[in-house]
Amino acid sequence: MAAPKASLDEKSQLEYIEDRSNIEESAEQFTPKQAAAIRRKIDLRLLPALGLMYAISLMDRKNISNAAIAGMRKDLDLLEGYRYSLITLVFFITYVVFQPPMTVMCRKIGPRIFLPGICLLWGAVVIGLGFSKNWTTMVALRVILGILEAGYFPGCVYVLSTWYAKFEMARRYSVFYLIGSLGSALSGILAYGLMQLEGVEGLRGWRWIFIIEGVITCGIAIFAYIFIVKFPDQERDKPSKIPFLKPDEIGHIIDKLQRERGDVETEPFSLVKFVKPARDWEIWGFAFMLFCMTTVAYAFAFFLPIILKDNLNFSMAASQCLVAPPYAFAAILMYSTAWGADRFKIRSPFVILNCVIALVGLPLMGFHTNPAVQYFGVFICVAGVNANIPLIMAVQGGNIIGQWKRAFCSATLTGLGGVGGVAGSLVFRTQDAPDYIPGIIATMVCCGAVIITMLILTAYFKWANNKADRGELVINGNAEFRYTL
């Protein structure tokens, strides 16, 4: 009796299972050129879509500063007290609190549905911000926005870390973050253009900033759904009807990752296993460094247009548009240091270098009296700080093993990064205008703290590696694993 005809998905899985014994052997047959071509396939499916959604997420969380100088503060009575700071701050409360459960949901649901899905929902919330009648409504919508965006950044950090080996990560993180930063930097120019819709359909220009950017967000979410792929083990076990990698190609990727860190296979979820890495102090060292960097990065994201207008005395149009060039320069430094970190297989010297660059720029911006020199200082500090964020992500990603540990660490890393958003929203206070000297000092302290933490971690990693070389220590449960310095 003939067997029933299998569906296309079943056929794909059966064919893969039959060939599975040969995959490791065929995977070894790839030349370096062919292996690079496979990586490019992964890059093209992940980096543009994830980067664009990250750009729009940054734009949607910081367009509040563009709207602020376009009339929102006056219309919604935000010129007194901490109302404006409260609107920027509440986003990060839910953003931080909901990151661990949202990261687990990303693993369970899969990135292809989860990440574009939450992007589509937060786009609808941003449209709602454009129709807010009072500041309390805006606070409520920013709370919801924080919940939805909570799953995005840790989800991206997690999915990227599952596809790339440790010395492939820094460049990929930098490209992902670079696309996000450049897109976000252009938000000032876009916001200035949208402000010209002042009075159309009876709406203020600042309202159009939210409405149009929300519509763009929804469109990018649909685009991303078409391109984003699943986790490697999901692509292997449940291949799509039109898989983007052949079985031997996905076998090559999985075999490479399995040999490097042995954590491709996902264990059943256990809350105890998920939170167990909280005992490892270095995990909190990674997260603390990102907290310091995001404190500075978000401080500039929320207040740079205001600082350019109030402190450097640029016009409103110039303040909106002059935000973009420093981020373009940051992109160059970001990729250069990431390339060097992967090429030379070291991290700490480049992290420290970026902090030193920022520490040169911050005093120029804060204490010099010439606006041109101050704006040059903005270039330097924005570049150094933003270049360090993907690099710190790579420091963490290359020094951990295990799927649920990777998920937990992604949540803690980006969670404390989100706390940096809370701190960043309070760094440049209204009462410190127009010089904002306390904010400048606070950001300099953050850069210095990263240098000290990186030096401590590097000394510990070197000590642990030496003990492992002598056979006196097993790192991360793997005798072959060594920390990246």
Set down the secondary structure blueprint:
Layout: H1 8-27, H2 32-75, H3 83-97, H4 99-109, H5 111-129, H6 135-149, H7 152-163, H8 166-185, H9 187-195, H10 205-227, H11 232-237, H12 247-261, H13 271-275, H14 281-310, H15 316-321, H16 324-344, H17 348-367, H18 371-397, H19 403-427, H20 437-469
Helix pairs in contact: 1-12, 2-7, 2-8, 2-9, 2-10, 2-14, 3-6, 3-19, 4-5, 4-7, 4-19, 5-6, 5-7, 5-10, 7-19, 8-16, 8-18, 9-10, 14-18, 14-19, 14-20, 16-17, 16-18, 17-18, 17-20
Total separate domains: 1
Cα gyration radius (Å): 23 Å
Low-confidence stretches: 1-27
Question: Helical amount among residues, as a percent range?
Answer: over 70%
Name the structural class.
mainly alpha
Count of separate DSSP helical elements: 20
N- and C-termini, Cα separation: 62 Å
What is the overall pLDDT average?
A: 84
- Strand/helix succession: HHHHHHHHHHHHHHHHHHHH
Number of strands: 0
Beta strand %: under 5%
Major beta sheet summary = none
| CATH architecture identity | Up-down Bundle
CATH superfamily: MFS general substrate transporter like domains
CATH topology: Growth Hormone, Chain: A
CATH class label: Mainly Alpha
The shape is globular
